């Protein structure tokens, strides 16, 4: 991964990235899934803790080695296997249907063909599958062995971007994905995009949580518009 960070005043997003890397370190390397497996993992991860989604993913994979037969799995079978995830009812239906769609369109449950596609076309193709939104589609392209240059924005990332005023207060994940990606330096590669997502998620799980931000301890406190407004409110008579 190559990052060329300017020595002069950096763009806000670069300053944030640099500060978070100082606080949390570099993203640890982890084995990558093939894109079809990453798609399944992404669906299991929606609003679910990483530990739970990993456990459920392995259980599903063990029941359907190489994903053979997953397209024919009944709702009851899926429910039994994935019932622990937050949106189990939704994805017990959507996962087999998405696999069916891919097999009927491409002849196999294999997304390797997306490697040569432009990112926008690949995102659009994936988002037409049942249960696949922009975050799952982006994760399929960026986190998998495809390693495409696309930013993954989850709810942590969206909340922080709103507080930092990198996006508007009502921006959706779809709008934020495109707005935030345009703020990233042109010479960042797919690995830098992935690290940026990882750093923002770490911040969202530690200091900038949904329950309430701990601005006093946050490594971004002097860079953040939200923190500045809060401090002013506290110092006003
Ligand atoms: S300073 Fe506060 S609002 Fe800003 S990113 Fe940190 S925790 Fe979130």
TrEMBL record:
It comes from Phyllobacterium phragmitis. It holds the Pfam family HhH-GPD. Residues 44-205 form the HhH-GPD domain. CDD domains: ENDO3c. Its cofactor is [4Fe-4S] cluster. This is Endonuclease III. Gene3D superfamilies: Helix-hairpin-Helix base-excision DNA repair enzymes (C-terminal), Hypothetical protein, domain 2. PANTHER family: A/G-SPECIFIC ADENINE GLYCOSYLASE/ENDONUCLEASE III (PTHR10359), DNA REPAIR GLYCOSYLASE MJ1434-RELATED (PTHR10359:SF19). InterPro entries: DNA_glycosylase, Endonuclease3_FeS-loop_motif, HhH-GPD_domain, HhH_base_excis_C. The keyword Iron-sulfur applies. SUPFAM superfamilies: DNA-glycosylase. One of its GO terms (molecular function) is endonuclease activity. Keywords: 4Fe-4S, Endonuclease, Hydrolase, Iron, Iron-sulfur, Metal-binding, Nuclease.
């Amino acid at each position: 991964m190559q990052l060329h960070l300017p020595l002069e005043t950096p763009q806000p997003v670069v300053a944030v990235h640099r500060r978070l890397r100082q606080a949390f370190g570099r993203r640890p390397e982890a084995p990558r899934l093939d894109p079809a497996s990453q798609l399944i993992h992404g669906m299991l991860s929606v609003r679910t803790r990483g530990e739970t989604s990993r456990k459920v993913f392995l259980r599903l994979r063990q029941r359907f080695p190489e994903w053979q037969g997953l397209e024919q799995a009944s709702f009851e079978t899926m429910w039994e296997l994935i019932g622990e995830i937050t949106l189990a009812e939704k994805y017990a239906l959507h996962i087999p249907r998405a696999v069916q769609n891919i097999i009927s369109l491409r002849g196999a449950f294999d997304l390797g063909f997306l490697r040569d596609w432009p990112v926008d076309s690949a995102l659009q193709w994936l988002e037409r599958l049942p249960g696949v939104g922009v975050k799952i589609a982006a994760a399929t392209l960026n986190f998998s062995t495809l390693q495409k240059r696309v930013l993954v924005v989850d709810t942590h990332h969206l909340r922080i971007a709103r507080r930092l005023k990198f996006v508007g207060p009502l921006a959706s994940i779809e709008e934020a994905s495109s707005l935030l990606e345009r703020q990233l330096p042109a010479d960042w590669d797919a690995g830098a995009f992935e690290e940026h997502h990882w750093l923002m998620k770490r911040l969202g799980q530690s200091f900038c949580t949904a329950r309430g931000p701990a601005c006093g301890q946050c490594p971004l406190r002097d860079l953040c518009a939200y923190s500045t407004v809060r401090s002013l409110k506290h110092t006003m008579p």
